Amino acid sequence: MTERPLSEAEVVEAERELAVALPQEYRAYLREVSAGGPLARLGRTDRGWWWAGNHPEARALLAVPFPHPDSYARADDELMDRMPEAEAFEGEAAYAAAWRVWADEADAFEELKTAGAVVVQENGCGFSTLLAVTGPLAGTMWWDGRATCGRIVTLSLDHPGGATPVRFGEWLKHGSVALLPSDWGPPMPSAPVFPGHGS
Q1: Sign of CA dihedral 183, 185, 186, 190
Q2: Tens of pLDDT, residues 76-132
Q3: 3 state DSSP class of 114
Q4: Does pTM surpass 0.85?
Q5: Domains of the chain: which residue ranges?
Q6: Domain 8-67+113-179, classified CATH 2.90.10, yes or no
């Protein structure tokens, strides 16, 4: 079921409140096709404009540019190298305290990986499709595969040739599954058909 498209005034109101300029192809989808349907619905909530299924806390990071996963790979490795190990501590309490500090840092780091992006589609099993909303990558599409592979993956038509991320309009034609790298992981269900676009 599709949600009625938003009016231009509603899109402008949402952009002003969220302090972002929505990518043009996504903006056109909201205005001409649907405000939701198979995608996360953008609508007014009791806390203002927001996307269904997205954590309200993510609002604070929406204006922060979405980071390419390559930009934090080294920091990710360094964080994992610093993960506390029980044998390095004298007593359970000291280990637990160190673990809490590290886990808080790791949680904050994970949140930054999706800064400037929104979940536009839940794909089940903890996987989701992200639309970068702000920064140089605004308008591009990403697969949040952290539930199994611990990383965010480029959705691309050309993984062997450099994996340039597809833009929202191209993603609508293919869906996430068809745009994953062939060696990404387990077989995924078939891609959904989007209203107003071919499958």
Answers
A1: negative
A2: 899 999 999 999 999 999 999 999 999 999 999 999 999 999 999 999 888 999 999
A3: coil
A4: yes
A5: 8-67+113-179, 69-112
A6: no
